[in-house]
């Protein structure tokens, strides 16, 4: 997103910017991870969201000539990791309730 649009939305404020990244990428990862059946697919979904975060930041750097925001990438990855941790109890419950599904 171009910097003027970020300023207009108010997401450049320090106390807003990092939580927005954490929430946006955490929710995106949670949605994809929730659709997955196996651990391998869950990890691939998380990796895909991390790669999307990096590519978006590189895109901003290339197209809008913004500075490369490595802290944003870190916040995005932390959001993805939080989504993985949040889905752990659901995963453990579903695998123990259906042992045939874990054999796939």
Describe the structure.
This protein is mainly α. The protein has a domain at 37-93. It has 4 helices and no strands. α2 (14-35) runs antiparallel to α3 (39-63), α2 runs parallel beside α4 (70-97) and α3 packs antiparallel against α4 (70-97). The protein is elongated. It starts with a helix and ends in a 7-residue tail after the last helix.
Helix fraction, binned, reads: over 70%
Structural class by sheet pairing and helices = mainly alpha
Could you tell me how far the N terminus lies from the C terminus, measured between alpha carbons in angstroms? 41 Å
| CA-based gyration radius | 16 Å
Q: Tally the helices: what do you get?
A: 4
Task: Give the tally of β-strands.
Answer: 0
**Strand content bin:** under 5%
Biggest sheet descriptor: none
Stretches where pLDDT is under 50 for at least 5 consecutive residues are: none
Order of helices and strands: HHHH
Brief rundown of the structure:
The protein is mainly α and 104 residues long. It has helices at residues 3-9, 14-35, 39-63, 70-97. It contains 4 helices and no strands.
How does the SSE layout of this entry go?
Elements lengths: L2 H7 L4 H22 L3 H25 L6 H28 L7
Helix pairs in contact: 2-3, 2-4, 3-4
Please give a handful of descriptors for the protein shown:
104 residues; mainly alpha; elongated
